[in-house]
Design goal:
With about 270 residues, the protein is of the alpha/beta class. Helices cover about 35% and strands about 20% of the residues. The protein has one domain: Aldolase class I (TIM Barrel), CATH 3.20.20. It has 8 helices and 13 strands. It has an 8-stranded parallel barrel with strand order 1-2-3-4-5-6-9-12, surrounded by 6 helices. A two-stranded antiparallel ribbon has the order 7-8. Helix 1 packs parallel to helix 8 and helix 7 packs parallel to helix 8. The radius of gyration is 17 Å and the shape is globular. The mean pLDDT is about 95. Keywords: Transferase. This is 2-dehydro-3-deoxyphosphooctonate aldolase. Its EC number is 2.5.1.55.
Length: about 270
């Protein structure tokens, strides 16, 4: 995949990592535009290629009373408005075959969730839209096995594919990032490190996923040092009251300093 093939992507000449960032879920138009405006300002300032991320619905929930979305079409229209307002590409995840074509009408990148990346029909449906496909590595999968998921996309005559590591299950309630997987997966496709999901603490007795946002910069720095192509960071101006994944999201007020630090590391690494 060539980064330049993502519609409206900017700063591809800066030799920087690219960024997929935004709220876990689209909660409304005002919040999406507010977050996008801030991240666009930061990434333009730092020369980081940027894709706005927001889930139009949340299908993988621990409890039946968990927030799942504001309505598919309503959320997808908000994603389109973000793209048109700030002239940036957008990414959202899909969960069913019928989601692929529906979401493809509104966004530029279709993301396959980690738990679903082995679902051949879903991966093929995403690939056949012609959109860029982001395959999240299953928490239960080896880096080497992601080559087969990538091949499913390319076998559909779609070379626009990237993979994202979001950690590997470590016991019942924790995840670890095995940084040996980054160079392995980069042989197959551009590789993204999902920093915030890697710090989740799932399967809590409360039915609400926990997290370690205090470790975000630690994991992100290690990813940049190890030549990851992109970073995935969920961020919100009020994580404590976010409707999904608040426990592991980055508070938006800290994003600029984090990215500034990471860009400096990338510039140093580029010299070697």
């Amino acid at each position: 995949m060539k980064l330049e093939n993502i519609p409206n992507i900017k700063h591809t000449d800066k030799d920087n990592f690219f960024l997929l960032a935004g709220p876990c879920a689209i909660e409304g138009e005002e919040m999406a535009l507010r977050i996008a405006e801030k991240v666009v300002h930061i990434t333009d300032k730092l020369g980081i290629p940027y894709v706005f991320k927001g889930s139009f619905k949340k299908a993988n929930r621990s409890r039946i009373d968990s927030f799942t979305g504001i309505g598919d079409e309503k959320a997808l229209k908000i994603l389109r408005k973000v793209s048109e307002t700030f002239n940036v590409p957008t990414v959202t995840d899909i969960h069913e075959i019928t989601d692929a074509q529906k979401a493809a009408e509104y966004v530029d990148v279709l993301q396959i969730p980690a738990f679903l990346v082995r679902q051949t029909d879903l991966v093929v449906a995403a690939a056949e839209t012609g959109k860029v496909v982001n395959l999240k590595k299953g928490q239960f999968m080896s880096p080497e096995s992601m080559q087969h998921a990538v091949t499913k996309v390319s076998d559909c005559n779609n070379e626009q594919v990237m993979v994202t590591d979001r950690g590997t299950m470590f016991g019942y309630q924790d995840l670890i990032v095995d940084f040996r997987g980054i160079p392995t997966m980069r042989k197959f496709a551009p590789t993204v490190l999902d920093v915030t999901h890697s710090l989740q603490q799932p399967n809590q007795s409360s039915g609400v996923t926990g997290g370690r946002p205090d470790m975000i910069e630690t994991i992100a720095r290690a990813g940049v040092v190890n030549h990851v192509d992109g970073l995935f960071i969920e961020t919100h101006f009020d994580p404590a009251n976010a409707k999904s994944d608040g426990a592991n999201m980055l508070d938006l007020q800290y994003l600029e300093q984090l990215l500034s630090n990471l860009v400096q590391i990338r510039q140093t690494i580029n010299k070697f």
